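TA notes, week 10

Several of you asked for a full example with nothing omitted. So below is the full record: structure tokens for the whole chain, then the designed sequence directly under it. When grading your own attempts, check the secondary structure regions first.
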């Protein structure tokens, strides 16, 4: 299963990288593939990128995933809210980390 991780980035300390990485590691540890939006840009010079430049690659990656996990405060993020809306319109399951790991394994507190 390919799992897309969605959550707030803009305005978060260190762009919320630690939360994304923690969930990514747990997804991989139970045998699934994880898509962390930060990884989509790790080899690019994104200095000066705008939200409108970040979102298309994220949406493209989301479309190829089976499931989406939402990090805390996702609903206060314009980008994460768009990702969840698209996932739901595509009939992809949307889970909190707790619910995902409860269903698929590794039910550690996140």
């Amino acid at each position: 299963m390919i799992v897309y991780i969605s959550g707030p980035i803009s305005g978060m300390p260190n762009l919320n990288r630690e939360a994304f990485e923690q969930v990514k590691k747990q997804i991989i540890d139970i045998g699934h593939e994880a898509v962390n939006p930060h990884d989509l840009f790790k080899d690019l010079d994104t200095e000066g990128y705008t939200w409108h430049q970040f979102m298309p690659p994220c949406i493209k990656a989301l479309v190829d995933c089976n499931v989406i996990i939402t990090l805390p405060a996702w609903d206060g993020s314009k980008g994460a809210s768009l990702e969840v809306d698209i996932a739901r319109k595509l009939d992809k399951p949307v889970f909190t980390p707790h619910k995902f790991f409860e269903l698929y394994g590794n039910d550690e507190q996140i």
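The mean pLDDT is 92. Use that as a sanity check on your answer.
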